Structures are given as C-alpha cells and as structure tokens.
C-alpha cells in the first residue's frame, strides 16, 4: 500500500478546525453525542438534506468516547441481507470519504481476515462468503496455505491448540485513523453551519404530549423540534430520561496498543474462537482488541483476565509478537442488543430518534449509520437500509442475528 | 504411595513422575507426590433431612459437614462440603464399591444421589513447612492459617485448572484433587513453583 | 478483576464465576395471554442502569450455586451478595466492598 498520507503526522487535537459554539436557546435538530456517529449524523443532515439549524451536544470533548477507543476495523462481511446492505452502504461511503470531506482519514483497504479454527467455523465462514457474494459484498475463502500467503506472520502450523483451518478474506476491508474521522466530520459539519458544543451534558429530555421538545443540559435548557440520541454506551441512561426502556446492555470492551514496531502486519486479522483481533496502525503500533467483559458496566474499564486471555491468543497466532510490549490498555462502553445488531430509527416518542446497540462494531458503520439516521430525521421515515433495524423488531420477533459475524471480534 | 488393590490393573495419571517429584522435593521443606486411587463418592441429599444425615453417619461413621468448605473425618472416611446439598466422600483405595452399596441401601427411603467418581480425579499431596507458600503461587484463595487450616477444603480455579484443595494437618499437608487429564499440567506447575524453596 | 463474595464460599476471584445478567426477572404467569410487546419486553428488555444493579452470578468453579449480587455498574463496587430466594434488602449475605 503506497498511499501518500499528507496529514499522517497530525495527531494533536485540532480544535481550531471547527467553531467552538455556545448553545443557543433553540435548534431545529439536536444530536446528543459528539462521537463519530453523532458528527456523521449532523454532517449528512446538513450536506444531504440541507438542514443547518443543528447542534451536536457532547458531554466531554469531541471524539473522546468510543471513536477514540475502538480498534478501527472496517468491513462489511455480515451474514444477513439487512446487515450486508447496511454495512456495505457504509463501506461504499468510506471509499469516497477522504475526498468528500477533504480530510485524509488514512482509510486503508488492506484486507480483513476472519480466521476459522474448527470445522464449524470453516462451514460458517464458507457460508458467509457465499452469502456476501450474493449480496454484492466482496468475499473470498482462503485455505490454510492461502492464509499463510496473504499474511505470512500468522502461525499456521498444525500443532496449535486452535489451528488455522482457513479464513474469510474481504479485500476491501481495512482500517482508518479514528480521530481523523471525528475531526473530518466535525470540520465539514461546522463549515456547513452545525454548532458543535463540547462540555455540555444532557441531564434530561423534555417530552410533552408524546413529543420531544428539547433537552435539559448542564449548560441550560435547549428546545428543539427533533432530538437524536447518539451517545455510545450511555443510551439506556439517556433513553430512560424520556421514559423509554431499550433492549440493550452496556459492557466494557477492552483494547490494547503496543509500542511502535516495524511494519510487519499488512492486513487485519480477527479470530472469534480465540478472542483476538489485531491490526498494525500506520505509525507502527499494534492495535488489539478483546471480547467484551461479561458484566454490565459504565466504568470504562474491564477485568485483567480478559486481556490476558486475548494476549495468550495473540502470541499463539503471532509468535513474532511474543516480545512486543503493550503500552496501554483501556476500555470503551459498548451497548449490545440481544441479536448483536443495532437499533437505528424512530421511537414511540415523536421527534425522538435513536441510534444505539452497535455493540463492538460501531466504528465501521460510522458513515452508514449517520447517513441513514440523517435520512430518518430529515424525512420522518426510516430509509429502506435502516428500516429493518427498528426498535419494534424485538416485539415482533424479526431479529437480525449477527452473533456469528459480530460475536466477539470486530 | 498407596498400593493399588483393585481387581484390574490401573495406571495412575502421574505414573512415571516419581523421579520428577523426588527431584523437586526437599525433605521437611516441601514435598510433592501422588496418592492415586483413593475412593471418591459423590453424595447429594437434602441437608435439612435429619434422618438421611443420621443414616450416613451410622453407615460410614462420618458426619456430613454443613459449614461451607469444611471437612469431617470419621472411621477412615472424610466428607468434604462441596455445595449446600453435595459432598465428596473419600475413603481408602478400593472402598468405593462398598461405600456406594452401603449408602444406596441406607438412603433408599430418601431422595438422594450416590455416585462413584473415583476415576474423576487423582490426588496430589503437597507437604512441608513451605507447602502453603508453594500453593499460594497458583490461586487467589486466602490460605492464611487463620482462614484456611486443617479440616478446610475449597473448590477453586488453580492456575486455570479446576481443583479441590483440602488441608489435612498442621504440617501443613494439602491434598489437591484434580482431573486426570489436567494432572500433568498441575504437577508441572507445582514442580516449577517448588524450585524457589 | 472483581473480587466477588459467594454467599456460600466467601470471597473468590471473578474468574471462578459466570455472569447471568439481571436478577429478579419473573416468568410471566400466563405467557399465552400477554401481548407481543409484553413478551418481547420479558425476553429482551432488561434494566441497564449506571449505578446499583441486581444481577445473577454462578459460582462455576466453586459450589456451582446461582446467587445475587448488588453491584454498582459505574464504580464496580460490590454492595452485597445474597442467596437465591432472599431479597437484597433483607439478606443475611456477606456485606462487603471490593473492586
């Protein structure tokens, strides 16, 4: 990959790129949550639908939540038609996004391997490849030799506890620089007239006559015609302010990063069976993730044994990493739906919109999620892409079970 | 080592490890060995059933302990508390058939379960003045004598292996009950831990 | 790692336990009679507070009993553990703190 990354060295927090705004008393649309999804929602509302009387409310600093805490994997190889359509739309947006935002997102389609370690996973992997192809999503099945050829540093010897029996490969999958995504969307949204308000925590949602009318914040009340809840991990708490109970549970999801190493890992490697996913960022650090911690939590930290297990798996799969030093570990809060698919769309409260339940895989969906939610907010109706991801699917039984594709590794 | 006296020859899960154990052990400090083939019988019954508990006492000469993680002894048998309605009965090698037969007769009127699980675990014995320190390298149990002394037992995860830990005297001597397929792993772990002492 | 107090075995490392989600979810008296919304709520909707939460744990590697924990999801502080059949308020279970 010989992409010229003009801004690759700009990792400081560039707050000069967007206007710092004081909250006004009222807006047409309030987006609660200034992470990737919230900023994308505001950007597409302005860009695609011509709405500009918009404020994004962020309780901390812009891009300080899960957009800063994820492992940046991008792919669209989900099993079911509904998911394939949603994630593939998102991937197509990624493919033109650096140009559209005029901001280098370091989007790098280096390929994503999902390893199979037992016969069941081989069957499921091949099934998913076939399903992906039927949905126009690029997908290939590699046998063990094919894995070795594509990613030579993966240990493919047959005497592993969990030998590599093959892998799905999505060549269009890859990674992007996460904070650039937040900054890129914020910069363009701000230029289009969106107010970005940091340090403004929502403490209450005003509902009158079955209709959302605004929010209470730590910087005073703000009224609005429409309110969109897009705050990762915390949506149960926010929704409860409006009297809504959601089928999501919040869990810690831990990640780790190593010191800077020579470039040796040219693709993303994920394994659900041994609980690890890893890529090497542009600067050279290994970025790894574990499975979620089992218990509910909002503490942005998890238990050590989870990452211990994940590191054991990483070292077995990549003996070359066995002496790498992990510099930092952290956790984000992910809200997980019972079917491992998100909720994007309307709520029983008029003018209140919801985007939640992305679980461990929300980063890849940032453009598609913002794009479909913006359509829903602007038109009052879900787009055909997010219509299946309605809140009421849990009452009607139309679940979109993506535990296989989403399970642990994202 | 207990001599094996069953009708068919059995192979201890750690047969062949004797020289490793001798090498790792230091007399009076810490010693490790296997005591295979002790009779293990799992017993479940309602702890509030006084008559059933009395039948067990009359049959085996041992009282079923009601306090969690404690052991009672009597007449060559030991009863380890595993759960509120579950005990592990340990007897001399070869006695499992007799224990099961006599209990099934004695408990016939009551709702119960008696099962020979002798083959389910083997027993390691860790003995000596430093046995406690060696044991502490692999688990988070509070092994301080104030908390864990003779007559105490615990089921725990030991160096990622399921284990029943049972202290039988003040030396201290610990009996470690482990699945046969995990026994070499556990033995390897303990031999390594003993190096320090 | 959490240090969890099993109401039977006492304090043990989290790795000995299995998490079971929210406690005190009652099975509907007459499942056939309730609406789809109510059934969906029973199956899929649980409380998800940032704060005190009553949850089930199984002491997998110990006594293999399910029990309840009152735990704060924002701090991981464990307020109390109590046996099945007891309520959090009148429990005789161990009262302790940990993280």
What this model shows, in words?
The complex is a heterotrimer of chains A (410), B (197) and C (99). Chain A has 410 residues and is α/β, with parallel strands linked by helices. Chain A is 28% helix and 25% strand. Chain A has 10 helices and 18 strands. Chain A has helices at residues 36-49, 81-101, 119-134, 144-150, 178-191, 235-241, 304-317, 366-379, 393-396, 403-406; strands at 26-32, 54-57, 73-74, 112-116, 140-143, 166-170, 174-175, 195-197, 202-208, 211-217, 222-229, 249-260, 268-271, 276-280, 285-292, 326-336, 343-346, 352-356. In chain A, a hairpin with a 4-residue loop joins β14 (276-280) and β15 (285-292). In chain A, α1 (36-49) packs parallel to α5 (178-191) and α2 (81-101) packs across α8 (366-379). In chain B, 24% of the residues lie in helices and 30% in strands. Chain B is built from 5 helices and 10 strands; from the N terminus they run αββαβββαββαβββα. Chain B has a 5-stranded antiparallel sheet with strand order 1-7-10-9-8. Chain C is 9% helix and 33% strand. Chain C has one helix at 36-44, and strands at residues 3-6, 10-13, 18-22, 52-58, 66-72, 78-83. In chain C, β1 (3-6) and β2 (10-13) form a beta hairpin. The radius of gyration of chain C is 15 Å and the shape is globular. At the A-C interface, α9 of A face β3 and α1 of C.
**Do you know the CATH topology of the largest domain in chain A?**
FAD/NAD(P)-binding domain
Please state the oligomeric state of the protein chains shown: heterotrimer
Main sheet strand line-up of chain C: 3-4-5-6
Beta-strand proportion of chain A: 25-35%
CATH superfamily of chain C: Folate-binding superfamily
Low-confidence stretches of chain A: 1-10
Overall geometric form of chain A: globular
**Quick one: which chains have the greatest interface?**
A-C, 25 and 27 residues
Q: What are its keywords?
A:
heterotrimer; B: alpha+beta; Gyrase A, domain 2; five-stranded antiparallel beta sheet; 24% helix; C: 99 residues; Folate-binding fold; four-stranded antiparallel beta sheet; 9% helix; globular; disordered C terminus
């Amino acid at each position: 990959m010989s992409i010229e990354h003009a801004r690759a060295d700009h990792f400081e927090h560039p707050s000069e790129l967007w206007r710092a705004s004081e909250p006004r008393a009222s807006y047409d649309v309030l987006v609660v949550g200034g992470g990737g999804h919230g900023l994308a929602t505001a950007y597409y509302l302005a860009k695609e639908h011509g709405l500009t009387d918009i404020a994004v409310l962020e309780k901390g600093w812009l891009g300080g939540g899960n957009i800063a805490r994820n492992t940046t994997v991008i792919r669209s190889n989900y099993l079911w038609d509904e998911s394939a359509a949603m994630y593939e739309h998102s991937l197509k947006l990624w493919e033109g996004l650096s140009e559209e935002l005029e901001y280098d997102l370091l989007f790098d389609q280096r390929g994503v391997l999902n390893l199979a370690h037992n016969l069941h996973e081989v069957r499921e992997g091949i099934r998913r490849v076939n399903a992906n192809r039927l949905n126009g999503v690029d997908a290939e099945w590699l046998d063990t030799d094919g894995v070795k050829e594509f990613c030579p540093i993966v240990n493919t010897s047959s005497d592993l506890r969990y030998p590599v029996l093959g892998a799905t490969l999505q060549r269009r999958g890859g990674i992007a620089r996460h904070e650039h995504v937040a900054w890129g969307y914020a910069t363009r949204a701000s230029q289009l007239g969106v107010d970005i308000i940091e340090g403004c925590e929502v403490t209450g949602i005003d509902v009158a006559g079955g209709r959302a009318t605004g929010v209470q914040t730590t910087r005073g009340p703000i009224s609005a015609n429409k309110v969109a809840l897009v705050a990762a991990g915390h949506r149960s708490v926010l929704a409860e302010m409006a009297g809504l109970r959601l089928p999501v549970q919040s869990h810690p999801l831990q990640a780790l990063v190593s010191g800077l190493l020579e470039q040796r890992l040219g693709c993303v490697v994920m394994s659900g069976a041994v609980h690890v996913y890893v890529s090497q960022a542009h600067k050279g650090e290994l970025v790894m993730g574990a499975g979620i911690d089992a218990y509910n939590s909002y503490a942005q930290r998890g238990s050590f044994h989870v990452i211990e297990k994940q590191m054991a798996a990483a070292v077995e799969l990549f003996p070359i990493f066995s002496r790498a030093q992990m510099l930092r570990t952290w956790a984000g809060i992910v809200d997980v739906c019972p079917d491992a698919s998100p909720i994007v769309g309307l709520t029983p409260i008029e003018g209140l919109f919801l985007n939640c339940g992305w679980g461990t895989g929300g980063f890849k969906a940032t453009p598609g999620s913002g794009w479909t939610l913006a359509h829903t907010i602007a038109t009052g109706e879900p787009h055909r892409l997010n219509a299946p991801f309605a809140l009421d699917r849990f009452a009607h039984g139309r679940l979109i079970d993506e535990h296989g594709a989403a399970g642990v590794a994202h | 080592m207990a001599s094996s006296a069953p009708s068919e020859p059995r192979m201890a899960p750690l047969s062949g490890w004797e020289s490793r154990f001798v090498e790792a052990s230091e007399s009076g400090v810490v010693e490790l060995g296997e005591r295979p083939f002790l009779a293990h019988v799992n017993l479940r019954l309602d702890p509030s059933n006084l008559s059933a508990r009395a039948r067990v006492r009359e049959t085996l000469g041992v009282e079923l302990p009601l306090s969690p993680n404690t052991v009672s002894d009597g007449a060559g048998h030991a009863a380890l508390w595993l759960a509120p309605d579950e005990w592990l009965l340990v007897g001399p090698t070869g006695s499992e058939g007799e224990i099961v037969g006599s209990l099934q007769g004695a408990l016939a009127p009551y709702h119960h379960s008696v099962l020979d699980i002798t083959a389910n675990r083997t027993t390691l014995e860790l003995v000596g003045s430093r046995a406690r320190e060696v044991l502490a390298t692999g688990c988070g149990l509070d092994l301080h004598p104030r908390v864990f002394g003779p007559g105490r037992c615990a089921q725990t995860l030991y160096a990622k292996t399921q284990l029943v830990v049972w202290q039988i005297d003040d030396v201290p001597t610990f009996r470690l009950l482990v699945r046969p397929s995990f026994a070499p792993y556990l033995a390897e772990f303990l031999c390594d831990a003993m190096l320090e002492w | 790692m959490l240090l969890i107090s099993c109401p039977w075995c006492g304090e043990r490392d989290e790795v000995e336990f299995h998490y079971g989600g929210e406690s005190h979810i009652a099975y509907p008296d007459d499942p056939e009679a309730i609406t789809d919304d109510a059934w969906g709520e029973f199956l899929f909707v649980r409380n998800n507070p940032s704060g005190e939460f009553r949850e089930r744990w199984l002491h997998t590697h110990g006594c293999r009993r399910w029990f309840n924990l009152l735990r704060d999801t924002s701090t991981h502080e464990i307020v109390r553990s109590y046996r099945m059949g007891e309520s959090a308020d009148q429990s005789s279970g161990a009262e302790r703190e940990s993280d």
